[in-house]
Batch of 4 targets.
Target 1
Amino acid sequence: MALCNRENGGMTATTRELADNFDLEKLTPEFYADPYPTYRALREHEPVKRLPNGSYFLTRYDDLVTAYKNTKVFSSDKKKEFAPKYGASPLFEHHTTSLVFNDPPAHTRVRRLIMGALSPRAIAAMEGDLVRLVDRLLDAIETKREFELIGDFAAAIPVEVIGNLLDVPHEEREPLRDWSLAILGALEPVIQPEQFARGNKAIEDFLGYLETLVERRRARPGNPERDVLTRLIQGEDNGEEGGERLSETELLHNCIFLLNAGHETTTNLIGNGLVTLSAYPSEKRRLIENPNTIKTAVEEMLRFESSNQFGNRMTTQRVELGGVMLDSGTSVTLCIGAANRDPSQFNDPEKFDITRTPNRHLAFGTGAHQCAGMALARLEGAIAISRFLARFPAYELKGSPLRGGRARFRGFLSVPCTVG
Ligand code: HEM
């Protein structure tokens, strides 16, 4: 089958060629704009694809689930993989100390502490503040009429929510987004020297800031039921000597991770969701007319344009996956964006359907590392998108949205809009 190139309307690569030529280290502008034809080609022709650097790229739903669920064989520990990429640098120390890039027991200890502060009760208690925040942003947009969907809305929500979660004083939140973008940007498959330098500087500045915040919180602890930082500082009180405690390094880096994990991903859920709705006017109308479908609509936005497109694992032993033998020590990229459009799991997967059920997408991963903040992300997405639509049902994009030029985190840097 030949594919149409959007740029020149001409026939370009066959799906077979797309799959054959795919290299995560040489992504094209067409891929950044629309990776789904490539994902589909890979799923159909080479679902367990060996890349030129010796790593593998997985695109089938079932293969991702196998890798996610089998944590002994598919390790999340990134020390081996990141040593050549980052050397002895702040980025290396940060990423290899974060819970997401560790296996048990380091992973389990930190996860237990974090999950305790993200209980359904704690999240339900955040709803009132969240509604007030979203309404304040919508009031400001109403006055402006022409606005920036990402800067004025999508990105302004998670920074406040995560800031509240760690109780970062409001006036100290401004640098958080740029630090987060710089640190996560350094996780792209290929990074330039300036991205590496920016990532390292962001870690150093972030650590410097957190040290003072932790010092202040030690002096004046918050309520550990709702303040994650106090919870991480105090550790677990299991009634015995030596209950779970984090070292200073673990504490600081996992706070940075938490602040980052909820930022760009949730910004992209809200931004991608509203851009996708404007590209599918009949689904947009359906959602406006049936606001009670917001929950399934958010799930469909998560599936259709997943904010986090890739996960990574390394094999700890020789293993067969999807008919291919992988040696021990092989890096694998789990392509969430491709699995979420796998026809073996989703009926008519290229269709954007706001009432799709069932919808067992992998936008939050699955298994032991499944997103610890997914209930919060869902709440943020539902409140932000439903209140935005209720207020500005006729919103329109003005000009072309600008993509961030990232493959791992899919979203927009800027989306000029009018309230219509
Ligand atoms: C739409 C928004 C979000 C998306 C798409 C998303 C996606 C993900 C994914 C795919 C993972 C699994 C990584 C892996 O297995 O390799 C993950 C892990 C994680 N996420 Fe999220 N996330 C979102 C929002 C949040 C928020 C709001 C928070 C915090 C409040 C958060 C905190 C975490 C944490 C702590 C982990 C690590 C869990 C572990 O390793 O056990 N995320 N997220």
Target 2
Amino acid sequence: MRNFFLLLVLLLNYSGIAQDNKLDLNYYLPKDVTYNKSIPTPKSIIGHEVGEWHVTHDKLVQYAYALAEASDRITIEDRGKTFEGRPLLLMTITSPANHRNLETIRSQHLSLVESGSSSMNTSSMPVVVYQGFSIHGNEPSGANAGLAVAYYLAAAQGPKIDDLLNNAVILFDPSFNPDGLQRFAHWANTHKAQNINPDPNDREYREAWPGGRTNHYWFDINRDWLPAQLPESRARLNTFHNWYPNVLTDHHEMGTNSSFFFQPGIPSRTHPLTPKKNQELTGMIAKFHARALDQIGSFYFSEENFDDFYYGKGSTFPDINGGVGILFEQASSRGHAQESVNGVLTFQFTIRNQFTTALSTLEAAVSLRTDLLDYQREFYNDARKEAASGGAIVFGDEKDAAKAYHLAEILNRHQIEIHELKDDFTSNGKRYTKGYSYVVPMNQRQHRLIKAMFEKRTKFQDSLFYDISAWSFPLAFNLDYIENASMSRAGAKITDLKMRTPDTPNVSTYAYLMEWHEYYSPKALNMIFAEGLRAKVAMKQFSLEGRDYDYGTILIPIQNQEMNMADLTKFLAKISRETKVPIRGVRTGLAEGIDLGSSNFRAVEQPKVAVIVGDGISAYDAGEIWHLFDTRYNMRLTKLDSKSLGSTDLSRYTDIIIPAGWGNALDKGDAEKLKTWVQNGGSLIAFRSAGRFLERNELMKLNFKSRKDSAVNITFEQRRDYSGAKVIGGAIFEAKLDRSHPIAFGYKNDKIAMFRNTTLMIEPDPNSYNNPIQYSSAPLLSGYISKPNLEDLANTVPFKVSNLGRGQVIYFTDNTNFRAFWYGTNKLLMNAIYFGDKM
Ligand SMILES: [Zn+2]
């Protein structure tokens, strides 16, 4: 009750509609310390009080450098750039004495995770805390609070702060997502009125697509700690491994009507590889947050809604790396002040809760310092014991060096030791060859992380997941692999990982051939087309000059090209060097199987591709496609806004992609326009929920499976869990491939792993040749799916193509481009683009 009255008083004092001119830094700051006048306040540098405006990233950078300049407690480093060129800053904050001794402190701390750490005295070692803010750019209270937190850490004076800074090294990451923070600050500031209007209908609180949550290519960066495909994550991982923090915090926002959440999350949804002690420590830390929030009258909750399962999130990643990850979620004002069920929620109030828990984190970490350090040591000692039985994982693809390399690259970023293959060998009919395969010893420090990345898991304590339930990397890369290989397969340890470079193409006077297996073969073909050269694709397998060529081999004739023979030879050598795709010259067209002049070599046209983006489209799915074209294949992709399709001349595109969405992106008129465009020869490619649009508008006949079942013995309280358990939130399934179909060109195996996060299922065609990709009869490879869903999914098809006039409509129920790390299915989309007219 006392808290209730306190809250009421605080709401009256602070949460009433903000009077910006009265806003004062003291609103946030503790009163039990004095402040050093020589340290600049945020306002003195950025020109406004914390919470008065949404800080833009450039101003945040300005303040960070000013603080580092003024304070001997802070050093600053620029760890790289976002896609939009913003710096990824890190401030290291500790006592001046510790700063002078920082390398020693760091190397001692790092010894804790190595063997032989048992004799180390943790009572004299500082705790390492990594504090990060606003990884979702439109959850800005964290990054804005960071201004005040950094000021406090630089300016506070007295024994309390001295004790804190002597006993902690703080890795302060002021903005986890600079591009998203900037995008949202622009939005909120652009719409701010002098008389702040908390009406939730105001445009200020309704961001335009794609919103500020994501980074440049519209990725959720807080899913990338494990895949590490984005520059922001890569910089953070370097810092992580440079220090192995004991605590890592991740300050977020959630719905406006909520309160404040801190971990632990739902206990039954903690990943089983996370030690129990991790959750105990999280619970001990939580008491500090509770006390601090009690003192300022703020409401909160824990052990609900959020979980610690997927290791790709900032609050979970540390849990498999010897630390404790903590998620904070503050109800969002999503602007400067917004009405909520708890009264008007002001931006300042949200900032203050983040500020308060940032400080309670530090207080907890210092109080639990030796527990955290001892736990970290124990985590790695236990991991080494588990690892002692040895063994190795071997993975690779004898036809695709790039894909194998990119998985090795991820392991490298996680400081997982990898080795070359000692000798080529064959196992279970799969060939493992040097340069195309790697060996991962199980007996190493990162043993538990290796398990988390490679395991297939199909049994779960809970049937609900905040995020995906499976991410097995060799499946995502569609690589051949052996889980229980012997270390005798291992050659030299790799210290300088490089992608294999193929032999320079031998000079030919007749034709060049390029197989389609390599990951970057679409990039190579795009380079060929960009010079106006002609190319054909082999619809059948053949052998020539003692070598077998698979379906989908690209033929580049020498005669009748825009380039003379010498230039063409040089140009193809350059392509091969840059894309790492082998290209071979041949002297004759007389082959076993189809000859090079056969009509089974079909001309391929240079695609001109557009993707529908904007309102109603999933920015994640659209962004993954944009990122794939732009950063992997260097292919131009036009982003067509869903709202302007009606006024766009579509005839300049050969392919249009509709990513998943919410069903309202395109209207009847758009559908008619697309239909005419397909009938005139276009290829329409749709993903996931866009299949409903195809079906509704008779662009394609799709026979979606449906099951009507009613809840039995499910109470009102259980209803959400009941429906939640029917969701396929993200799991991995096996499908059979018809390798002779153009959608499967470049795949060397007749099975493929598919990532699925939808319950849309389509019945197979009665003619088997129309089902080139079909789920197996028992398709679950890894992840959670309910039993009825699994029964339904068996033998359905995730892909369909049908002709319409002179064009075709192509549909995938699954996401082939998931989060940029599903390298294994990217080629399906590229096959649809390059060979769609041959299906
Ligand atoms: Zn968030």
Target 3
Amino acid sequence: MHPTSTTVTLIGAGLNGPLLATSLVKRGFRVEIYERRPDMRLVPVNAGRSINLALSTRGIHALAEAGLWDAMSQIVIPMKGRMMHSVTGELTFQPYGKDDAEVIYSISRAALNMALMNAAEAKGASIHFQRRCMGLDVKTGLVRLRHEETAEETTIQSEVVIGCDGSASAIRAEMLKLNRFNFSQKYLDYGYKELTIPAGPGGKHLLDKHALHIWPRGSYMLIALPNIDGTFACILFLPFEGPDSFAELATPSDLVEFFRSRFPDALPLMPLVSENYFANPTGFMVTIKCSPWHVEGRCLLLGDAAHAIVPFFGQGLNCGFEDCTRFLEILDRHGAEWKLVFKQFEESRRINTDAIADMAIENFFEMRDRVADPRFLFRKKVELALEAKYPQLFVPKYAMVTFHRIPYSVALARGVVQDRILAELCDPIDRVEDLDWTRADQLIRSQLSPLEQAS
Ligand SMILES: Cc1cc2nc3c(=O)[nH]c(=O)nc-3n(C[C@H](O)[C@H](O)[C@H](O)COP(=O)(O)OP(=O)(O)OC[C@H]3O[C@@H](n4cnc5c(N)ncnc54)[C@H](O)[C@@H]3O)c2cc1C
């Protein structure tokens, strides 16, 4: 507990805001959250907000620290690997990890968001809905708010403001006006559309529910994640323009024909594919990097507001939750010395959020086209064989990011070394049995230190 009456103002009751609020209230702070949307527990969730998320070790750790994982574990479905669907309907299963403990969890974004808001309120945080942050005076801490229904404008004074307001952060927009604020944003030429596979008779899942399903098609793909109600949340990733793009799918018959020829085994499972496609917005994907994340101990950016990444490593949320873990560790060390806490937080975190941003882009290409390549699948098998023999030295990059909490920057650097080793070992062979274990031993022992030393 911190002997302080400081009120911390959080902008945004998405995923990071309420999680952070829960832990701040526990530490004795008063927390007020301002959220521009209506309360999703009372009004239906907008299309595009119900996409599922893959939750993994970093996110689970943060939830457990906040005392929330036991409750959340009731609303997740473990996914043991990727199930690839070829155009001819063949299925290939590729496990994510070396055993059943190394799984990722599918969770509904809306269900998670509501559970986090309930938890924050139960602890004592206040959430003010339909209050859009219109700006912040970073010198005085005056926050301007507008009521989304009445358009009434108000101001509040806050000692500390944390922008958890996502990739289009209003707080970051304020910081952009300052001298020497670094900012970059890079959009993918790809967008995404949310679709659904309904539950079968008796609420049964129509596909294996313990897999993340992927229909990789070179320059585009469809994925599906299971929900506990028997449905699958699907995401269609397509280029905005050009062949096989959103621009080309202008009518229901274009769409059905596209699915019939590209995803023939998925189409019969999606009776509402046209309705979903034309009703739901097309989302975009952006990588945002900026610095500094804080101004004078007065305001801080956290989560997507500080570092939005593309979704292909399933880490945006996990990374944001890890921000919360790190922030609270530093806060516990220094107390409400905000300037110092914010500075140390950014210093320890930005190198890692930059690393996961780069790995997420790289994974886009892996999921989109390489998962269907037999040589890639062979390398994955060799990776698992090497990990089985050298569990502390050779851990696949996917596993380092997803099942460990070693810094992302370390995972990135070790991944580069491991890729070089894998290329040398795999290029001359086609079967795991033919692996040159003597050479593998030399390369691994000389080039990789034990994993725990790296963390
Ligand atoms: C298609 C897709 C799939 C994804 N899949 C995964 C995945 O599998 N695993 C994973 O870990 N991550 C995934 N992510 C990333 C994840 O969704 C984000 O990293 C996460 O939502 C970030 O949380 P946040 O709280 O920082 O921002 P958000 O969840 O975006 O929340 C921000 C909140 O702030 C509010 N807000 C915005 N502006 C204002 C304002 N001016 N005033 C008041 N309130 C405001 C918003 O309404 C919102 O509620 C995915 C993202 C996408 C787009």
Target 4
Amino acid sequence: MTPDEQTRADDRRHVFHSWSAQGLINPMPIAEARGSVFWDYEGNRYLDFTSQLVNMNIGHQHPALVAAIQEQAAKLCTVAPGFANDKRGEAARLIAELAPGDLNRVFFTNGGAEATENAMRMARLHTGRHKVLAMYRSYHGATAGAITATGDPRRWPSEPAQPGVVHFWGPYLYRSAFHSSSEEEESARALAHLRDTIVFEGPHTVAAVILETVVGTNGILVPPPGYLEGVRALCDEYGIVFIADEVMAGFGRCGEWFAVDRWGVAPDLIAFAKGINSGYVPLGGVVISDRIAETFRERPYPGGLTYSGHPIACAAAVASIGVFKEEGVLEHVRTLGEKVIGPELRAIAERHPSVGEVRGLGVFWALELVRNRETREPLVPYNAGGGDAAPMNEFAAACKARGVWPFTHFNRTHVVPPCTITEDEAREGLAALDEALAVADSHYAG
Ligand SMILES: Cc1ncc(COP(=O)(O)O)c(C=O)c1O
């Protein structure tokens, strides 16, 4: 068997994949990857417009991260979480230095779900309240608490879920739940709705509001002016912990260390993962405010993980933060967003009737595809599967045929390449999307 055949055979016989009907998938083996590009075993080249799972912010095989991992592995592969470790401490210090407000301590996890799960646990213990408010258009992870907080259909099969999670509508002007006609109106009405939700749930029962600073998989929804500040004020008014889930939005994706920096808002807890070390070694965590850390000064924190603060994962985080600083990655992301991706996508939208809206920032963009610009009927229905999803599958196939691996979700394609993608590569990928959108246009009925 060739390596390609062996990989496929082992995968099909023995690997059980996430979120999938195991008999209906045929995962493509990746043979090699570098920067923003990967190759299959036949040598076909794909530009990675997904950053894998919107996590590989620094690109594939960055030499500084590879070296840091090799060095740490040679020195000390692992220690139990109860010991102190130089790389763990350094990673925590660097993250605390970058975090807003008095968020000065880090609880490390292995990924994003454990980060949101522990953030909610901290909020409940800190406040002595049990309810958590989360948005309908959200994803917070697949462990018990995190999937309960999740507002999208991935939650449904895990129900009945944990008691005490209440969903609310966040701002989303293009499909406003509040019939708003401007960003200002949407911001004000979404805040009024959140206030009503808090009041009707009983403020004394609400431990936390958790939200993605910029909603990721559920649509790249950038909060309108005043919204995050308003959430901060509501949380202060009612003594509620504000948890920002920055698992996807943080560490460069929005052109900031933390996406909240763009709005100058300091939450009480920030959940992070993905971009912290681009997933070279699994790592996530919660950055904790002094006030909440104080709750656990004399009282033990009732949560832990064997690999909390894994030295190799933390060494990769330290190296990644260093690369961001030395290579000016945040500035590069802002330039890409403002000068290349944003303008190009807006130009693409003018050429294709099926593009209903372009939105995003940094390297975090969505094209919302529609059948009709007037009615805004989505190109495929919400949560479409099987034949209903065919137009999006055809569009994705057209991208792949042009050497671009696209991110698609429901009726949207997201442009989420590594933060380190070059301008030429970004333009190359956008040109391929431009061509592939002819497929979406062919389903346009407006
Ligand atoms: C916003 C957000 N929170 C949490 C998670 C869960 O992270 P993980 O898959 O590392 O558990 C994700 C994953 O996509 C995410 O996008």
